[in-house]
Amino acid sequence: MPTNTSIAAKLTWMNIAVTTVALLVASVGFLFYDQSNARTSLVTSLSTQAQIIAANSVSALEFNDPESARQTLRALAASPNVEGAGLLTPDGQLFAEYWRSADVRVNVLPSLSPDKQQTVLFFSEKVTVIRNIDFGGRRIGAIYIRSNLSSLNERRNRFLKILFFVLLACMGAALIVSWLFRRTVAGPIAELADTAMKVSREKNYSLRAQPSLAHDELSTLITAFNEMLSQIQVRDAALLSARSELELRVQDRTKQLVAANRDLEAFSYSVSHDLRGPLEVVNGMSYIIHLQYGNELSPGLKDCLDRIDDASKRMNELIEDLLNLARVTKSEMHRERVDVSAMAREIFAELKQRHPQRVVEIVVASDAIVVGDAHLLRVAMDNLIGNAWKYSSNKSPSKIEFGVRRANGTPVYFIKDNGAGFDPRGMQRLFQPFQRLHPLSEFPGTGVGLATVQRIIQKHGGRIWAEGAVNEGATFSFTLDNAPES
Ligand SMILES: Nc1ncnc2c1ncn2[C@@H]1O[C@H](COP(=O)(O)OP(=O)(O)OP(=O)(O)O)[C@@H](O)[C@H]1O
Ligand SMILES: [Mg+2]
């Protein structure tokens, strides 16, 4: 039976199989019993006939009248199954015989054991009954009657035919009974399975299986299933309300965070902006002191003034960078088609012009066209190529490449150099403002560049990451959303 058959069909098949097997076993037993009874009555009937013929043949045997014996034997023609019979003398010689037809005639005479009154032989679909004939305490001969077993065979065939129809009727009855039982047994099981399927498909825990009126294992199963559903429904509702509460809280916190961030940025912007004024005063005063009292200053004071100059210059740079970072965050995006390859080539040309002494091998992938804010992308590319230029200044020749590759169908742009590289353990800090992995004495900078780049890339819906090792160069890769084929 296929494993995906329904329980109702399985029950029906089971009923039919049980009925058939039970009926077959009972029928085989009955057939055996019936055949054995039929054999016994056949032998009894043959024995009776043998006794009658024997009684009627006494005088023929006594007076040696075979013709009269043959006459008596011919009476057996009335029994359709008897094929032949014969009378023997006491020494086993044939005295008289009768055969229904020549083709059933047998020439071999049966022999009777001396100590038995009667012998029955079943051999190749025939039965032979042999009986002694005694008269006045003397054995005067023997008689044998030979019969076929067609009556037994007919009886067996009739039985098998009836059995076939009874079997058919029983199967039909089993089918009807199964169908009636389906409603009470298979029906609720099928409905339970149906409900379970619906619940799992629709995730609707308010559904319930139809309770059974009976008090059996099935009704216990349905009740347990429904109780389980009730519990899940309660937990599901609790989970949903907890989730929506959590979502509300997250939204609330996000709003607070955004507001705080905005305040912080506005604060840092205005602080940076306001610092410019006093700084310009410091610069101006220092310039005046240099101009008016330059020659009168002692070398110690001169050194102090130079340091004030350096510090205010660096502070100015920091303020500029901070303002740029804040501007990037605040600025509106103007999306357009941007040729990043041309942009990179332009930046390299400017850098070469500013540092004509540097030997740099430059590779720029052609036709990197993206959709983005041209101004912001220029700031990002300036920073990334500027970094590669700066941090590879210790190598000659330096090698810098701007390229594009594809990862999972998305274009990934990268700027790769063979410069100082960085310790990968510090990777998380690279994109945080004012975090630097190289000392100021080695490479100048404020540490705001990559933080600015990251904000720009994120504004474009992309991601930026870095790979590198100390003295083995660095690669900065980024993706942009809505980037057309490069
Ligand atoms: N191409 C690079 N190779 C090695 N280290 C790099 C590279 N680019 C950036 N870094 C490391 O990341 C740090 C942060 O870079 P970022 O551009 O933000 O700052 P910066 O270059 O030091 O200063 P600036 O704000 O002037 O750009 C750098 O100090 C440097 O240690
Ligand atoms: Mg930089």
Automatic annotation (TrEMBL):
It is an enzyme of class 2 (transferase). SUPFAM superfamilies: ATPase domain of HSP90 chaperone/DNA topoisomerase II/histidine kinase, Homodimeric domain of signal transducing histidine kinase. The keyword Zinc does not apply. It catalyses: ATP + protein L-histidine = ADP + protein N-phospho-L-histidine. Its main location: membrane. It holds the Pfam family HisKA. GO terms for cellular component: membrane. It is found in: Membrane. PROSITE patterns: HAMP, HIS_KIN. CDD domains: HAMP, HisKA. GO terms for molecular function: phosphorelay response regulator activity; phosphorelay sensor kinase activity; protein kinase activator activity. Its EC number is 2.7.13.3. InterPro entries: BphY/WalK/GraS-like, CHASE8, HAMP_dom, HATPase_C_sf, HATPase_dom, His_kinase_dom, HisK_dim/P_dom, HisK_dim/P_sf. The chain crosses the membrane at residues 12-33, 159-181. Gene3D superfamilies: 1.10.287.130, 6.10.340.10, Histidine kinase-like ATPase, C-terminal domain (3.30.565.10). It comes from the Bacteria. Residues 301-328 form a coiled coil. Residues 183-237 form the HAMP domain. Residues 270-484 form the Histidine kinase domain. Keywords: Coiled coil, Kinase, Membrane, Phosphoprotein, Transferase, Transmembrane, Transmembrane helix. GO terms for biological process: osmosensory signaling via phosphorelay pathway. PANTHER family: BACTERIOPHYTOCHROME, TWO-COMPONENT HISTIDINE KINASE. This is histidine kinase.
